[in-house]
Sequence to fold (124 residues):
Amino acid sequence: QVQLVESGGGLVQAGGSLRLSCAASGRTFSSYTMGWFRQAPGKEREFVATIGRSAGSTYYADSVKGRFTISRDNAKNTVYLQMNSLKPEDTAVYYCAATSRIVAVITRTGYNYWGQGTQVTVSS
Fold:
């Protein structure tokens, strides 16, 4: 089992940047594929990005491709989401998730563990 804690959210102006972190408990972090999702008010939780166990593979939603970068440091049990060129439509609660599957997973149901979320607000 793994516990996830996100941090790094906040208020930023459009065009700005934020870096989210997700710290995982446990000794088997490197065995999990990790993902980031987000949920805006009144909307479904949607996939943002995922990274493979060894960080060799990444996959992004079209809406963030070229602006967001997912990375991980297995020595620190942490996954990151660098968000650049932020837009007001990026405003949401961002969630970190983990799955024992070894392939890229872009659906909510594919993830076993979730963090509590961190709020990102982008002002225009």
Residues 35 and 50 are 4 Å apart (CA to CA).
